[in-house]
Every structure is written in structure tokens, then in C-alpha cells.
Amino acid sequence: MHILSLAFNSILNRKLTLALTVLSISLSIMLLLGVERLRNDARESFANTISGTDLIVGARGGPTQLLLYSVFRIGDPTNNVSWKSYEDIRNKQHVAWTIPLSLGDSHRGFRVLGTNLDYFRHYQYTGNQSLEFAEGDPFSNIYDAVIGADVAEGLQYSIGQEIILAHGTGEVSFIKHDNKPFRIVGILQKTGTPVDRTVHVSLEGIEAIHRGWNNGSAKTGRHVNADTLPINLQPKTLTAFLIGLKSRVVTFRMQRIINDYPEEPLLAVLPGAALQGLWDMMAIGQHALFIISALVVLVGISGMATAILTSLNERRREMAVLRSVGAKPRHVFVLFVGESGLIMAIAALIGVSALYAVQLIARPIIQTKLGLFLPIHPPSSHELMLLSAACAAGMLAGLIPAYRAYRYSLADGMCIRL
Known about the structure:
Elements: H1 2-13, H2 15-47, E1 55-59, H3 63-71, E2 81-82, H4 83-90, E3 95-107, E4 110-115, H5 118-122, E5 124-125, E6 129-130, E7 133-136, E8 144-147, H6 149-155, E9 162-163, E10 166-167, E11 182-188, E12 198-202, H7 203-210, E13 213-214, E14 217-218, E15 237-238, E16 240-245, H8 251-259, E17 266-269, H9 271-310, H10 316-324, H11 329-370, H12 381-397, H13 399-417
Parallel strand pairs: 4-12, 8-11
Antiparallel strand pairs: 1-16, 1-17, 2-15, 3-4, 3-10, 3-16, 5-6, 7-11, 8-12, 9-11, 13-14
Helix pairs in contact: 1-11, 2-9, 2-11, 2-12, 9-11, 9-12, 10-13, 11-12, 11-13
């Protein structure tokens, strides 16, 4: 303890010199833990987005692309699924329930999802949790809308307000369906999933606002009055749909039936398998980021060792004084190793604190822009292991200047005895 106290006082005497070293190491530790936390929390957030769904069905394409646009509202589909095919698959004997999904519109940067009441009955997230309402009820009329928690909070919306949907999924749209506004009738409880950033309307509402439109513009060059639309508003196509089966034993059989569907090219994917494929595709990038972060930490540690080494000549008088009052060479050795350990401990503390500060600032931005919910939690066992490894590496690097100090102190001690 006396050696550690002496090492701490020595650091304080050279605080300006070591401040930049501590800063560089703390930033590198923050980067290392930040990359690792973002990777793990993002994976958990993606995995918690959908639960209890056996198959996701869409137009033939890539399974990852289907998962991203149907569940995470990222990207756009290459084609749609006909309503006839949807009804045929929905009526098969092994199918317990289906949730139709129609995408392609937005509201002030938030995606609009056309669906039916089965969405509120059967959609589940994070361990089979069902959707719940914070206020209001599901839509019951054509021009009713149910909004997610982030939409309500970000745009300061409440029950009864009217909103205008826009054509396309961009944040800025010059084509709006302003001939008939939708009225907010429900606000969902926060889920920490893309549901929070979605405006939900009925399939009939989606069909109604697009009647009289052709290729993204009104056929007549003006908006059609929605009140004069025909009663039959059954959609002709869907973007995708979710399937829940009566028994998971038939999952692969049902997947094969849909993938070989003769009427049109369809693709059925298992959510878990598609999600694993997404992470496998991103694995190289994740490993590369982790390696780069680890190298940055090593660069910071080498800078610390260099800073201590360059100060050895200036500190020979200090070591000579210590030897003159009875310190042995091994005490000087432990002193320098202790300095390295204290520098790493201080840098680790600052790095972890900076990580939490950045996470507090960035979390709402990431959730708003990407729909990813990144929880703030204490360091995991894996993160503590990384911190311990970084501190151990710092102490190992401190052995080099400690050995040099040991040699200097031994030679200076002999001079003192002479």
C-alpha cells in the first residue's frame, strides 16, 4: 500500500505529462467497449424485435432483405405478393394465423404500415410479449391510425389529431395524400422495437388513399376525393405477411410448399435463420472493428510505456533518494509497475464513464434514426474481462520501464554506497 501511495503521488507530480497518455488510453478503452457493446446490444435488439412468428413470406429475393424490410422497416421490397396468393396460403390447414403487411408510405420520416386487426392480436416481441395500448384502441374505421410510442413522443401527437400520409419512404416527400387525413385513435406502449417508429393503418386505408393514383401521381393530375371511393377496398397486393403455424413440426414442410408455390415466385424464411444469416454476413466487419479497437488500446498502452521510459533519466535523482532512505531495487521495480497499473486503472475508469456519457447522448439519436433500442446497463462479464485484459496488458508493458528503473537504481545504489 505504501508503494501504491508513492506511485500515486509520483503520478500527481507529473500529472501534466501523463494527462495526454491517460486521455489516449481512456478514449481507446471507450472505443473498445463501445464497439463491443454496440455489437451485442444491437444483436439483442434485433433478436427481440419479433417473437412467436414461424415464417415470413414475401416476393422471391434474398432472405436478409425480406427480414429487413418486413420486420425492421429497413430498405424496400423488389416486388409484391398478390392478394390471391396470400388468401390461398392463409387458408391452408397448418396455418393458425397470418398478419398482412403493406409498406410504401411514410409520415414525416416514420414508416407507415398497412395491416389488419390480426397485427394487434398476434404480433409478439421480446419473449412472446404482445402489443399493448398506452392510450386509445385499434383502428376501426378506414381513416383511423395507431401510432408507435416514438412517433407520439417525437412529433408530440395525441389521440384525436389528424395526420397526412406521404407517398414513398423518404424523410422528405413532395407527394402527399392530403385528400383525406387520418385520425389517431391509439398509441402503443413502448416496445424498444421498430413498432415504436411506425404509423399503423388499415389495409383498406392504404388502398383508399391510392385509388385514382398511377405510378405515384394522381391519374387526373389532382387528388381524388376519398369520400367517393367504392366500397370494395380489398387490396390487390401486399408487401409481405407473417405466418403462425398450428404446430412448429410442420415449419419446414410449410416453408418448402411456399418456396415451391406454383402461382408466383415466393420466399418463406424462418426469422431466426434469417437473423443469423444477417449476423454471419456482418461477422467480418464486426471482427475487423474489434481488432482495430484492440490495436488502438495497444497503441495507447505503448504510448504510456514510452512516456515512462522517456522520464527515467529525469527521475534518476528520485530513485537515488529512495535508495538512500532504504528502498531496495525491487521496491523501485514495484513502484514503476504500480504506476503503470494506476494509470491503466484511472484510464479505464475515465473510459467507462465516457462510454456511459456518450451512450446517454447517442441512445435517443440511434433509436430515432435506426429504430435500435440500446439499453444502458452495468458492464457485463465479457466487458469486465476486456477491461481486465487491458489493465493486465498495461502492467505488462510497464515491466519494461520498471526493469530499466531497477537497473538504474541498482547502479545508483552502488554509487551511493561508494
